[in-house]
Specification:
The complex is a heterodimer of chains A (112) and B (123). Chain A is mainly beta and 112 residues long. In chain A, strands 1, 3, 4, 7, 8 and 9 form a six-stranded mixed β-sheet that branches. The N and C termini of chain A lie far apart (34 Å). The mean pLDDT of chain A is 95. Chain B has 123 residues and is mostly beta strands. In chain B, the strands form two sheets. In chain B, strands 2, 4, 5, 6, 9, 10 and 11 form a seven-stranded mixed β-sheet that branches. A four-stranded antiparallel β-sheet of chain B has the order 1-3-8-7, with no helix packed on it. Classes of the chains: A mainly beta (112), B mainly beta (123). At the A-B interface, strand 3, strand 7 and strand 8 of A face strand 5, strand 6 and strand 10 of B.
């Protein structure tokens, strides 16, 4: 159960698009289309942004999109806004016979 | 209002035990799997443990396996985490989280989170 690998930081100017990668293994990201993404502002609880790789819960802006290729999932934020500045975490189901999950290392998004 | 409220955190010495609770309200608790996720100060999120709606499926992170036990009481709308043999590295904010479910079924994601309860393991 090693943490999924994310870049420590990503930055962009308002209006630009940025992409955060999340690299796992064939035992987690690569085996299941069950990657979720969370946004966390300082001192706040995480918020679900993407589930099942590319689906958005009701109420989440369509500026957020997810995808996957092989063992790497990605979160793209388009039309970057000041309120998007936060930490972002990916998470993948990692169990076959067990009920387990693994989070990514986290990415700090800075809006320049 | 859908809400999760954790309690039971505090300062505890290494090797001792602590039991966390999570009180759920605003939704049908026994329809959903529930999880514990922790975050050490200044660090990232770590999934700790999860339990299915009927306690039939349970999982633990390798870092807590054999020391922590998750349970639930659907009659009381409550989730628990019994933490034994605590170590300094267990120091973290512990969140309770509900599994996100859509019309097609469980999605293996977490949509409702509590505000967390802080556990500090130190002598």
């Amino acid at each position: 159960q090693s943490a999924l690998t994310q870049p420590a930081s990503v930055s962009g100017s308002p209006g630009q698009s940025i992409t955060i990668s999340c690299t796992g293994t064939s035992s987690d990201v690569g085996s299941y289309n069950l990657v979720s993404w969370y946004q966390q502002h300082p001192g706040k609880a995480p918020k679900l942004m993407i589930y099942e790789g590319s689906k958005r819960p009701s109420g989440v802006s369509n500026r957020f999109s997810g995808s996957k290729s092989g063992n790497t999932a990605s979160l793209t934020i388009s039309g970057l806004q000041a309120e998007d500045e936060a930490d972002y975490y990916c998470c993948s189901y990692a169990g076959s016979s067990t009920f387990t999950y693994v989070f990514g290392t986290g990415t700090k998004v800075t809006v320049l | 209002e859908v809400q999760l409220v954790e309690s039971g955190g505090g300062l505890v010495q290494p090797g001792r035990s602590l039991r966390l609770s999570c009180a759920a309200s605003g939704f049908t608790f026994d329809d959903y799997a529930m999880h514990w996720v922790r975050q050490a100060p200044g660090k990232g999120l770590e999934w700790v443990s999860g339990i299915s709606w009927n306690s039939g499926s349970i999982g633990y992170a390798d870092s807590v396996k054999g020391r922590f036990t998750i349970s639930r009481d659907n009659a009381k709308n409550s989730l628990y985490l019994q933490m034994n043999s605590l170590r300094a590295e267990d120091t973290a904010l512990y969140y309770c989280a509900k599994e996100y479910t859509t019309v097609t079924g469980p999605s293996d994601a977490f949509d409702i989170w509590g505000q967390g309860t802080m556990v500090t393991v130190s002598s």
